[in-house]
């Protein structure tokens, strides 16, 4: 783990990341220190820095730090955390901010392959996402809703929980974004009121465009998901997991999802080779 | 500063308090290590622990730690932070949780006395509070809304900003609770959908009861505040600040607020002497 570029494992207890969740993070996969799908990770990181008025670190510096912490690991989870650093007491953003940058890596064997192959069982969460356009899409450090949602079940057969917002609209999974397929088109929830706009979501949107698959960002109702021809959740560590089971509904084939999985595999390999 | 009872100034960078804002805090005033209005602080702390499913620390232990960090300071701000500690990756609350407990003190001269004497100018914030009943009232570590709201103005003549929720209902100040007076009665926003239920708010409710002043928790509209006979904001460090100016409205006398300030002074003195 590197804290502002120095080896370490602790941060100042007065850091605003702890005090207020005043910061953001990203989680990604790296092979021997090479981050997968970096282009989308970086785009989302930079966008979130802008939204939070946080200084964005230099891209080359981040890549060097990822290489440093994960370089010896064949497969690692890398986590980047950026906070507004330590400041005077009080909520106001300091006029000058010395951000805290944490880059860490953990060896990781990946999720069980059958999730991507045979699909996953998911559930509806009772925990609702509050509607807050100001913070919508940002992968910020205010994640208590996700903590409560993910704590609703302990059954390891359930891979993910889907969350609705306060209006009952479907938004995302607790740690993933959601897509559905209907009539050969892709639909994914608009994230203008809440939810996290994940790097893998951005990548899937690009893959769909490359494949000529129409995609629309819309407000989805739970019945839209249940009526879908196919559905999947995705994130940077999981890749794409087809939905096999939800609330009595079963899906057994995912032809369009398979095309996206294949395209993702291709782009990941290209990304790994190119770097 | 004490971290889990040991002198220190840093925490594990993998703490869930940093990762997810998974914890809570309290800020209070102490004189030579004796916390003011501890009864209300403790009640709120214990309630928030229960709401977040966090183990509540022993009261005597906390008091001893406050005495240890602030014992030599005539007047101090004490901050208590409790988090769900470090755990395995992922949002789910760990089955067994070793909480992180941070108790720190800073010498502090108090706010300028004229704020309580002559009242304060406040403003409306544009930043709205999201409606999230699950977290309403809790002084948790997910405070980005407060950070954005408090960053809206830099004019030191404005002491506080008042926040509305997504429905336009008045909830609180960025760092305080709000009360208004109308026809000899006190009204304060219901905090069942968002907002922080402060220790000073609880204390004021008790003081009003002691004085035989009727109080109601209601949904207040901005026009209710502007039409009020008196209004004040309060928190554990500020005490009670009468509103002098808001959005063109001026208040010049605060007879009922003065009675509450007097009662607060009495109870603080009694509390300081008794301990």
UniProtKB/TrEMBL annotation, chains A, B:
<dbReference type="InterPro" id="IPR043131">
    <property type="entry name" value="BCAT-like_N"/>
</dbReference>
<comment type="pathway">
    <text>Cofactor biosynthesis; tetrahydrofolate biosynthesis; 4-aminobenzoate from chorismate: step 2/2.</text>
</comment>
<dbReference type="InterPro" id="IPR017824">
    <property type="entry name" value="Aminodeoxychorismate_lyase_IV"/>
</dbReference>
<keyword id="KW-0456">Lyase</keyword>
<comment type="subunit">
    <text>Homodimer.</text>
</comment>
<protein>
    <recommendedName>
        <fullName>aminodeoxychorismate lyase</fullName>
        <ecNumber>4.1.3.38</ecNumber>
    </recommendedName>
</protein>
<dbReference type="InterPro" id="IPR050571">
    <property type="entry name" value="Class-IV_PLP-Dep_Aminotrnsfr"/>
</dbReference>
<comment type="similarity">
    <text>Belongs to the class-IV pyridoxal-phosphate-dependent aminotransferase family.</text>
</comment>
<keyword id="KW-0663">Pyridoxal phosphate</keyword>
<keyword id="KW-0289">Folate biosynthesis</keyword>
<dbReference type="InterPro" id="IPR036038">
    <property type="entry name" value="Aminotransferase-like"/>
</dbReference>
<dbReference type="InterPro" id="IPR043132">
    <property type="entry name" value="BCAT-like_C"/>
</dbReference>
<dbReference type="GO" id="GO:0008696">
    <property type="term" value="F:4-amino-4-deoxychorismate lyase activity"/>
</dbReference>
<dbReference type="InterPro" id="IPR001544">
    <property type="entry name" value="Aminotrans_IV"/>
</dbReference>
<dbReference type="Pfam" id="PF01063">
    <property type="entry name" value="Aminotran_4"/>
</dbReference>
């Amino acid at each position: 783990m590197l804290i502002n570029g120095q080896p370490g494992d602790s941060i100042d207890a007065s850091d605003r990341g702890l005090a207020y969740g005043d910061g953001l993070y990203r989680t990604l996969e790296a092979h021997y220190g090479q981050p997968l799908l970096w282009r989308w990770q970086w785009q989302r990181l930079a966008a979130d820095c802008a939204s939070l008025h946080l200084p964005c670190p230099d891209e080359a510096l981040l890549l060097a730090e990822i290489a440093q912490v994960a370089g010896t690991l064949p497969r690692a989870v890398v986590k980047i955390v950026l906070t507004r650093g330590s400041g005077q007491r009080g909520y106001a953003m300091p006029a000058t901010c010395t951000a805290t940058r944490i880059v860490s890596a953990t060896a990781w064997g990946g999720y069980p392959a059958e999730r991507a192959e045979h699909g996953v069982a998911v559930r509806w969460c009772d925990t609702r996402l509050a509607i807050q356009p100001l913070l919508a899409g940002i992968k910020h450090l205010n994640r208590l809703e996700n903590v409560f949602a993910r704590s609703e079940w302990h059954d390891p057969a359930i891979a993910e929980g889907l969350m609705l917002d306060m209006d009952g609209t479907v938004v995302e999974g607790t740690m993933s974004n959601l897509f559905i397929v209907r009539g050969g088109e892709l639909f994914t929830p608009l994230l203008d009121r809440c939810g996290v706009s994940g790097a893998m979501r951005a990548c899937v949107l690009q893959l769909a465009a490359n494949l000529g698959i129409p995609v629309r960002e819309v407000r989805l109702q739970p019945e839209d998901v249940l009526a879908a021809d196919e559905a999947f959740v995705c994130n940077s560590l999981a890749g794409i997991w087809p939905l096999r089971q939800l609330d009595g509904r079963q899906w057994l084939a995912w032809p369009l999802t398979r095309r996206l999985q294949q395209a993702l595999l291709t782009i990941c390999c290209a990304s790994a080779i190119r770097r």
